[in-house]
Amino acid sequence: MNLFGVFLSFALLIVGEGINIWAEMLSAKLPGAHSLLESRNLFLFAMVIIGCSFLLFGYSTGFQASKNIWTVTVSSVVAILVTEPFLAYFFFHQLPEKGALIGLILGAIGFIATVTWV
Fold first, then answer.
1. d(C-alpha 57, C-alpha 76), whole Å
2. Are 13 and 75 in contact (CB under 8 A)?
3. Distance from CA of residue 35 to its chain's centroid?
4. What's the pTM value of the predicted model, to 2 decimals?
5. Is 8 exposed, middle or buried (0-12, 13-18, 19+ CB in 10 A)?
6. What distance in Å separates the CA atoms of residue 18 and residue 15, rounded to the nearest whole number?
7. What's the number of domains the chain is made of?
8. Are 57 and 17 in contact, with CB atoms under 8 Å apart?
9. Residues spanned by the domain of 111
10. Per-residue tens of pLDDT for the chain, all 118 residues
């Protein structure tokens, strides 16, 4: 297993998930789904395309480095668990509740176990 490649993949997944979640949170603040198609909000679709491009490179890099899709899958889930609470607080000023905090901790433990116990 190439640990550098795994961590590079994780970084790409964090950026990709972060961009996608950022677009999702911005769209959640719109007055309705119909607002997405207004010309001033079309940048959200561009954000998702860029975010998904990072995800594709992250998955490809991660699988080539680890030769195990589960390592990449766990990395992706942890990227969401790490990124989403920060962005949720930034955009909505809400702290995660106990269950979300426990999920974050267990996700980090799962990521460490996946990377170290091959």
1. 12
2. yes
3. 24
4. 0.81
5. middle
6. 5
7. 1
8. no
9. 3-116
10. 788 998 999 999 999 999 999 999 999 999 988 898 999 999 999 999 999 999 999 999 999 999 999 889 888 988 888 888 889 889 899 887 899 889 878 877 887 887 787 6
